[in-house]
Amino acid sequence: xxALRTLLxxxxxxxxxxxxxxxxxxxxxxxxxxxxxAQLDEIANTGLYSMATLQDWVRGGNNYLGYRIIITxxxxxxxxxxxx
Length: 84
Prior knowledge:
Blueprint: H1 2-8, E1 13-16, E2 22-26, H2 37-44, H3 51-59, E3 68-72, E4 77-81
Antiparallel strand pairs: 1-2, 2-3, 3-4
């Protein structure tokens, strides 16, 4: 629950799925193929993951593998997951 509450306090991003539906995702770093340093800093500052871990994921070809939340524009919760 701590991770859920923490992530909802971070900036979100919107994505559009192939059907054209809009989804809201937390943290915003998950929506970017190459998260910015500022986005990674926001996550590292929460204490959920270290900057070293976040950078390893990005260097490994993943944008972000930590906990993430996905909610549709209609308010339906799609996911609260961690990993790939």
